[in-house]
Amino acid sequence: VVIYEIKDDAANKISAYMAEQLKTMNRDDLTPANISFDKGRGVLMVNEFVDKATALDFNATLQKEKPIAEEFKTIKIQEFVISDKNFNTLYQTKELNTYLKFYRNNY
After folding, report:
1. What does the pLDDT look like over 57-101, one tens digit per residue?
2. Cα separation of 88 and 96, whole Å?
């Protein structure tokens, strides 16, 4: 998941970036999708990984190869791996800082 502030045509730019990364990594099995997170932020999700380890490996590779935050330095971005269940909870509560703290402590 990539949560980004909505500015400078971020949704289109980040979607195009991720589509290119998926193509470069030969990951035709994964699908990027954008949704609104709240009034000022959007979410780019990449679905669907077979398991947590695969998702974490993908994220690590993406961070190593071409970190999204370095591509879009003018846009505030948070990247992390999250299960469907936890994403549903996050999406309902909007408690991003709470989840990020949990993520950093556990992954």
Report:
1. 998 988 887 778 888 989 999 999 999 999 999 999 999 999 999
2. 12
pTM over 0.90: no
How do residues 2-23 score in pLDDT, each as one tens digit? 999 998 899 999 999 999 999 9
> Cβ(99)–Cβ(37) under 8 Å?
no
Query: Long-range contacts of range 7-14, CB-CB < 8 Å, 24 or more positions apart?
Result: 7/74, 7/75, 8/74, 8/75, 10/42, 10/72, 10/75, 11/42, 11/44, 13/72, 14/42, 14/44, 14/68, 14/72, 14/75, 14/77
Instruction: Measure the CA–CA gap between 11 and 61, rounded to whole angstroms.
Output: 22
End-to-end CA distance of the chain: 14
As a whole number of angstroms, the distance between CA 22 and CA 98 comes to 29
